[in-house]
Amino acid sequence: MMHENGQTMTHRKRVQTALAFERPDALPCHESPWEQTLAAWRTQGMPTDVPLEDHFDFDLAFMYLDTSPRFEQRIIEREGGTITYADRYGYTIRKADGVNATLDFLDHRTKDQAAWGETRAGMVLDADAPARIDDASYFGHFDPYPTWTEAGEKYRRLYATGRYMLFTFYGSWEATWRHRGLQNLLVDVAMDSDWVQEMADVYQDLVIAVLRRCLDLGMKPDGVFVPDDLGCSTGPLLAPALWCQVFQPAVSRLGGFLREHGIDFWLHCDGAVDLLTDHFVESGVQVLNPLEVKAGMDAVALRKRYGKRLAFFGGIDATKMFGPQAALLRELERKAPLARDGGYIMHSDHSCPPEVSYERYCWMLRTAREIFHAG
Questions:
Q1: Does residue 28 lie in a domain region?
Q2: Are 56 and 372 in contact (CB under 8 A)?
């Protein structure tokens, strides 16, 4: 499909068309290979001198907000193939060095309400400090942050590619447990919900302040992409009523700010979160990711349930991406056609694992695009 002027859509227009639930000119798509997947692909024939998004003609570009309390980011130990470090978000972890792997959380800074005072003091926007945005992920960000002027230059270079621009930052649940601890926060929600709501509100104040600063400096995203993992394999981590009481006010406030400024709201939420999805929509969420298949999140069923009220980004079963090719073909034939009516951007249901060869991924992407155009 072409524009009325006969020209192919830009990446940005393609995604915007999909989010308007109209048919784009091609299948909107993106992918997030693990670090070790990308390293393997480069030994299997993928060009090493071409960015991933250019090589596969992906439609999205990302910048990342630093919405942390800005604790000192420092490496504690590096040996035996592992790295242990303290993160600016207020946690200490040990993980395999240089690869995507399980994170072993060792410590969290907000041990009690007295410690919360120190954490809270860092959750303010200082316009004279380094920028709270970069084109490198906030996760494991050891390099110094740029100045706001330098960040603006990075934004303009990325925006000029014509890709749909997403600013990424933790959701209020994710950011809070990073400095408080997951188990502690689960208890807090039940035993001291007022304090948890305070922590969520303070965090959301910082998010909105950083976004407002970006807008004032001419850095406007097309959308925001908010990781906020609230689900496990069988259901939400929180009872829906508790999420609505404690976290929904902050999320709705963000949704209202984004709506006011014409910025789309994308939410990444692992696991089985169908009991929360209606509440996400009420809060302003427009796009849900990743639709984890093994947790029962099915893009086709969700489309029937939500129609044009919610778009989807993901949902391709990663286990089928390296399994029998016939099973992967059936997966693509079932889900790629969703994009013909808009409201769907193709991606795996989490990240692309190293079991997926470069040749297989190229076949998958080519086949999905052919299926889209065949209908």
A1: yes
A2: no
Joined together, the tokens standing for residue 142 give 């050891």
Rounded Cα distance between 178 and 190, Å, is 18
The length of the chain in residues reads 375
Distance CA 259, CA 248 (A): 16
- Encoding tokens for residue 255? 């949704």
Q: Say how far apart CA 144 and CA 68 lie, in whole Å.
A: 14
* H-type alpha helices, the chain: 11-19, 35-43, 52-55, 113-121, 148-159, 172-180, 182-191, 193-216, 240-246, 248-260, 274-282, 299-306, 318-321, 325-335, 358-374
Give me the percent of the chain exceeding a pLDDT of 90. 96
Please state the pTM of the whole predicted model. Answer: 0.96
**The domain containing residue 233 runs over which residues?**
11-70+115-374
Counting DSSP H helices and E strands in the chain, the numbers are 15, 12
Tens-place pLDDT, residues 82-108:
999 999 999 999 999 988 888 999 999
Give the helix ranges, DSSP H, for 123-247: 148-159, 172-180, 182-191, 193-216, 240-246
Domain count, the chain: 1
